Structure formats: C-alpha cells, structure tokens
C-alpha cells in the first residue's frame, strides 16, 4: 500500500471522544437539523486532512521534481501543456466560468440564508440547504432498482448492457471514502465497474457516470496502449457526463423513476443549485492546485482558505485542514480542468 492509501484505510473518525463511522459523521454533516451538530460532523468528516497533509505535500514536491527533470518549470506547467497545444486557455476559461456563475450563485446563497434563518452561511450549512429535497428524491432510487434503471437508460439510447463487455461488481462497504470506479482491464474486451452501493440519487448518478466511462472503453479504447491518446480521459469523462445526464431529463424522471411532475420541477431546481455549488468549489480547487504546484513551500492551508473564501463567499476556518482532502490532488489534478 502507498503511504496515502494506508493513511486513508487506517483512519478512524473520532467524534466527541468516540470512534464513529464515516456514514454517521456524514449524516450529521449533511442532514442534522441542529446547526452545532452539523459543524461537529463536518469537522469530524474533514479531520483526516491533518493526517494526509504531510504525504500530499511530499507528492506535490515529487511531481515538481519529475517535471523539472523533463524540462518543465513545474508539474502544472507540464500537464497543462496538452491543453495549450489544443488551443485551450485555462486561465481564460476559469475567468469565464467565474463570471457566468457568480450572479446565480450569489442568488442561491441569499435564498439559503433566508430559508435557514442565518445571517452568515457556513460550509456546514450548504449541504443541509438541499437536505430535505435530496432525501425525498432518494426514496425514488432504492439500491435494488438501480441496475434496472441503468439497463433501461442504456436501452433508451441504443445500448444493451447484457451484450456489452461491462461487468459490475458491487462493493457494499459503507464506511469508506471509496467511490465507484470504472477500470478498463483489457479494453475493449473486459471492462469492470467497482460500484460502491449507495441508496438514493447520488448512488445511481455515480453508477451511470461510470457506465458511460465504461462505454467509451468498450467502443473506443484500444487493447494496445500505443493506440490510445492523452485526450481519451477527457472523452471518457464526457461519456460519463452524457449517460449520467439522463437523470436531468424530466421525461426520464417521470417514466423510469416515477417522480410526480410537481416534485420533478423542485428537484431539478435543487440540482441546478447544487451544480452551482460544485462549480464554485471546483474553481477554488483548480486555482489551489495551480498555486500549490507553482509554489508548494508557501502556507498551503492559508492559500486554500483564501481561495475557498474568494470563490464560495463562505468564511474561513483555518483550524480545519481541508486542502489535502481534495481527491484530484492525489490522483490526477487535471481531472478538475477536464470537468
């Protein structure tokens, strides 16, 4: 096991002096009606950050050293060069997304403050602002129906899951940071999805997303790496987004999930708002990853909170080490740009 993976696997959540499951901590963080409990839940959820920080810092330094040996200024310069070659101006793209999302995001925050009856929105208030409607929506997507939803969804766009070389293995462990993942074992003949079984909309959305990525591997990816391209990851992610976007379609929600029409409109508005939240957090994380690789010797925690506050408009909590928990920071930082 790598050092970081071992840290994650062996981590135990301490909540008010007792060892607690990640599932229970997340439930408090996202859904507790008690604001103080939500804060405690969020702090427990992110407490792994302090354990991860030294290893993630070493990873950033190691990436920069490798990039330097290859003739680049730093790791960001190396991996972003492929986008520049394709005519993508990352700073301009970030600036444009920031401008387009600022106004609707500010409107969401104003509405959330009003509905929650708070003067200042905090990071532990944001998930709770959609807690009720998300829990209602989850009831339409029970675990035992999700594979049926996937089959019907693929059939509706001309694919038969039974005829594809895609094999789904269910992982029922709930007390884990692990998310569902698609693996091209031997493309295009053997594609596996390790599906972390989760009740509700998020579980189905994740499974559909990985199914879309698997479709790309089954139809486009080649067995010999020589014939695959750096751009493949971008197209894989696009396929994942296309297939999972079926859950945004009102007709699909009505015909397949049997949601009432009135609830569908409320749910779709909540989805739009949650996408805005994700985009603003994404902007903060992309800028953080850029700055962290440009100058890893600065105070990375202070840097993270400066950018978090800038793009989310939420208060800093510098006693919380969150920067090291950004998943893409330890896997593929450019996934954030591809998103």
Give a summary of the structure in a few sentences.
This protein is mainly alpha-helical and 339 residues long.
Alpha-carbon Rg, integer: 21 Å
Number of helices: 15
Query: In percent, how helical is the residue content?
Result: 55-70%
Instruction: Calculate the mean pLDDT score and round it.
Output: 88
Notes on the protein architecture:
With 339 residues, this protein is mainly alpha-helical. The protein has helices spanning 3-10, 22-31, 35-45, 48-69, 75-85, 90-116, 131-138, 146-156, 201-219, 232-244, 250-255, 261-294, 300-312, 327-330, 335-338; strands at residues 13-15, 18-20, 166-171, 181-186, 190-196. A three-stranded mixed sheet has the order 3-5-4, with helices on one face. β1 (13-15) and β2 form a beta hairpin.
List keywords for this structure.
mainly alpha, two-stranded antiparallel sheet, 3-stranded mixed β-sheet, 339 residues, 59% helix, globular
Walk me through the topology:
Blueprint: H1 3-10, E1 13-15, E2 18-20, H2 22-31, H3 35-45, H4 48-69, H5 75-85, H6 90-116, H7 131-138, H8 146-156, E3 166-171, E4 181-186, E5 190-196, H9 201-219, H10 232-244, H11 250-255, H12 261-294, H13 300-312, H14 327-330, H15 335-338
Helix pairs in contact: 1-4, 2-3, 4-5, 6-12, 8-9, 9-10, 12-13
């Amino acid at each position: 096991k790598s050092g970081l993976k071992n840290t994650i696997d062996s981590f135990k959540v301490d909540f008010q002096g007792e060892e607690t499951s990640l599932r229970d901590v997340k439930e408090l963080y996202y859904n507790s009606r008690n604001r103080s409990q939500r804060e405690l839940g969020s702090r427990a959820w992110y407490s792994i950050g302090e354990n991860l920080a030294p290893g993630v810092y070493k990873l950033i330094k190691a990436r920069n050293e490798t990039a330097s040996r290859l003739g680049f200024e730093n790791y960001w310069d190396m991996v972003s060069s492929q986008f520049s070659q394709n005519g993508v101006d990352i700073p301009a793209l970030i600036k444009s997304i920031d401008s387009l999302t600022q106004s609707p995001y500010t409107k969401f925050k104003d509405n959330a403050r009003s509905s929650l009856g708070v003067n200042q929105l905090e990071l532990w208030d944001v998930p709770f602002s959609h807690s009720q409607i998300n829990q209602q929506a989850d009831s339409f997507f029970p675990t035992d129906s999700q594979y049926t939803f996937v089959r019907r969804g693929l059939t509706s766009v001309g694919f038969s899951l039974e005829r594809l070389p895609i094999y789904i293995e269910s992982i029922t462990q709930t007390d884990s940071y692990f998310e569902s993942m698609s693996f091209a074992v031997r493309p295009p003949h053997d594609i596996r999805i390790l599906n972390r079984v989760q009740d509700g909309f998020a579980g189905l959305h994740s499974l559909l997303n990985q199914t879309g990525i698997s479709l790309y591997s089954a139809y486009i990816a080649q067995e010999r790496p020589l014939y695959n391209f750096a751009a493949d990851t971008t197209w894989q992610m696009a396929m994942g987004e296309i297939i999972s976007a079926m859950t945004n379609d009102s007709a699909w929600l009505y015909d397949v999930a049997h949601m009432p029409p009135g609830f569908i409109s409320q749910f779709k508005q909540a989805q739009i708002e949650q996408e805005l939240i994700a985009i603003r957090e994404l902007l903060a994380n992309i800028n953080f990853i850029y700055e962290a690789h440009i100058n890893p010797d600065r105070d990375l925690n202070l840097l993270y909170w400066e950018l978090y506050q800038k793009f989310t408009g939420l208060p800093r909590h510098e006693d919380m080490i969150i920067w090291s928990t950004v998943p893409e920071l330890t896997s593929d930082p450019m996934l954030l740009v591809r998103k």
